[in-house]
Design brief:
Blueprint: H1 2-13, H2 18-27, H3 29-40, H4 43-59, H5 68-84, H6 103-109, H7 112-118, H8 122-133, H9 138-145, H10 149-169, H11 179-198
Helix pairs in contact: 2-4, 3-4, 3-5, 4-5, 8-9, 8-10, 9-10, 10-11
């Protein structure tokens, strides 16, 4: 009987509580908001994703404590997906980039090297953030986006190409020869610049 009570107590303490998630969202407020902003590309929508993420974590399914922080980020992503509803761009269709009115706000909040990410088509931006910056597998990213792996990969390639062009236009890796090598260096520089600018927790 005593062992049963102990096991029951151990089981209850291995799960994150609503208070645990409140603490996580408070401690990681900057980075969780930046993640939401990186996806939504709009301050008001990012705030809504952050608040809804906290509410969902605090009242949703039980999660092991060791997974709580990664679950918090995943919940913010899921809320951003619901709010923005990104769809693959169609040929000859209008782009799903941020509204012109939101662009000045975007540029005023993030470093210059990261603003290009927020101006991507929404589907390409989600694909890049989830599969590159957050490190989700192609299968998991495609499942969350509701698309095939091929569609996800194509979106990621478009995002990398656009970000590399932006980095090149800002003077990164500009040389008089070796265009293929330049493109490769540009893509690497995009990841290195964007990741710390938006999603890495300061020491």
């Amino acid at each position: 009987m005593e062992a049963t009570k102990l096991n029951s107590k151990e089981r209850t303490t291995t799960y994150a509580t609503g208070q645990d998630f409140c603490r996580i969202f408070k401690e990681d407020m900057k980075n969780l908001y930046q993640l939401a902003f990186c996806l939504a590309a709009d301050p008001a929508k990012a705030e809504q994703c952050f608040v809804s993420g906290l509410e969902d974590c605090a009242t949703g399914n039980r999660v092991f404590k060791e997974w709580a922080r990664s679950w918090a980020r995943r919940t913010v992503i899921r809320n951003a997906l619901r709010l923005v509803a990104p769809r693959p761009p169609l040929a000859n269709a209008s782009s799903n980039r941020p509204d012109d009115a939101a662009v000045p706000q975007v540029r005023s909040v993030v470093p210059a090297e990261a603003s290009a990410l927020l101006e991507l088509d929404s589907f390409d931006r989600f694909a890049f953030v989830m599969s590159v910056l957050e490190g989700y597998s192609d299968q998991d990213s495609a499942l969350l986006l509701g698309c095939t792996r091929q569609t996800l990969i194509a979106a990621r390639v478009r995002a990398l190409q656009q970000l590399a062009r932006s980095a090149s236009s800002q003077g990164d890796s500009q040389t008089s020869d070796g265009p293929k090598a330049d493109r490769s260096r540009n893509i690497n520089s995009v990841v290195k610049l964007t990741l710390p600018a938006l999603l890495v927790t300061p020491a």
